[in-house]
């Protein structure tokens, strides 16, 4: 949430570009520093700074890429850009799986920082500097939505954030409780990343045929199914299906950020950041509720059912948004 606030703080694109680079350095330094202390307070500070740099980096990078796409006249879609997020999950999962049992905990942190350095270089060099967009007569300018649409869209993204944090944060713990995945947490994470990498481009193609709002509804449905599968079965097939279908969150994020990025082309990162605040609120509330329910019941089933219901509310909001939009078009 702090990262989203930071990304929304300024409308100066050059400043955002500088913040993006600061975020890259911060992410690398905080990861490396984790291996040199056992002080819990310092750990908390390092992880907080790392979290800020990660979410700010994601939003700022997405905004800068959207700015470049619009300036160059390309389709304003973020699917290809966000493939990197899925690949990052795969690489980190493989790295953690390999280092476990071979390196000590502090060596693992340093190893992850060294691995991150290989991705730092292209992320630093290849991000294009932003410029203000001047639309030509051939380029489509998207109307700024009214307050009702904005409120509904933010509420929808809150629901998406709740579903994401439960899926992404607890998927490994949930599946490791099943006989097949016990002690295979890194495998789960690799499957999640492998499914997430192509998910954005797939959902972009679906949106090209069905429209973005309708595609978001289907993505919500797919993720809801992935959330409910562990409730009804602890089998290996259900676990793999849940991890694979969970990749729908990538489609939700990609489509949502692309929508607001097109509406506010000269400062997409700021618009994305403001929207992500509702996502961030969900990421604060959901773990607190989860901790209480898991402690009280000894199971994740209740929070998974609640999360599925909240995702259902998100589907309802998308249907309302679709109706509101169709009335405006009429």
Automatic annotation (TrEMBL):
PROSITE patterns: MFS (PS50850). The chain crosses the membrane at residues 22-46, 52-70, 82-101, 107-127, 148-174, 186-203, 215-233, 239-264, 276-294, 300-321. Keywords: Membrane, Transmembrane, Transmembrane helix. GO terms for molecular function: transmembrane transporter activity. GO terms for cellular component: plasma membrane. Residues 1-325 form the Major facilitator superfamily (MFS) profile domain. SUPFAM superfamilies: MFS general substrate transporter. InterPro entries: MFS_4, MFS_dom, MFS_trans_sf. This is YbfB/YjiJ family MFS transporter. The lineage of its organism: Bacteria, Pseudomonadati, Pseudomonadota, Betaproteobacteria, Burkholderiales.
């Amino acid at each position: 949430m702090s990262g989203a606030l930071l990304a929304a703080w300024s409308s100066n694109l050059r400043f955002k570009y500088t913040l993006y680079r600061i975020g890259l350095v911060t992410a690398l330094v905080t990861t490396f520093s984790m291996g040199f202390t056992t002080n819990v307070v310092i750990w908390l500070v390092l992880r907080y700074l790392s979290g800020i740099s990660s979410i700010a980096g994601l939003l700022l990078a997405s905004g800068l890429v959207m700015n470049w796409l619009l300036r160059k006249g390309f389709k304003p879609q973020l699917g290809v850009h966000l493939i990197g997020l899925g690949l990052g999950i795969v690489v980190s999962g493989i790295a953690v799986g390999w280092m476990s049992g071979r390196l000590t905990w502090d060596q693992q942190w340093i190893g992850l920082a060294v691995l991150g350095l290989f991705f730092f270089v292209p992320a630093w060099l290849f991000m294009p500097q932003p410029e203000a967009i001047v639309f030509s007569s051939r380029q489509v300018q998207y109307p700024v939505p009214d307050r009702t649409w904005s409120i509904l869209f933010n509420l929808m993204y809150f629901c998406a954030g709740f579903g994401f944090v439960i899926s992404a944060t607890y998927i490994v713990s949930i599946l490791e409780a099943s006989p097949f995945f016990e002690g295979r947490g890194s495998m789960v994470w690799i499957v999640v990343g492998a499914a997430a990498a192509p998910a954005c481009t797939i959902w972009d193609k679906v949106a090209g045929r069905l429209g973005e709002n309708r595609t978001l509804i289907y993505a919500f449905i797919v993720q809801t199914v992935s959330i409910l599968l562990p409730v009804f079965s602890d089998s290996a097939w259900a676990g793999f299906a849940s991890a694979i279908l969970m990749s729908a969150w990538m489609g939700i994020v990609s489509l949502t950020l692309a929508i607001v990025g097109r509406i506010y082309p000269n400062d997409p990162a700021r618009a994305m950041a403001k929207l992500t605040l509702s996502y961030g609120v969900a990421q604060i509330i959901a773990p607190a509720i989860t901790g209480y329910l898991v402690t009280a019941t000894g199971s994740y089933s209740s929070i998974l059912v609640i999360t599925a219901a909240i995702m259902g509310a998100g589907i309802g909001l998308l249907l309302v948004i679709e109706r509101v939009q169709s009335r405006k078009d009429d």
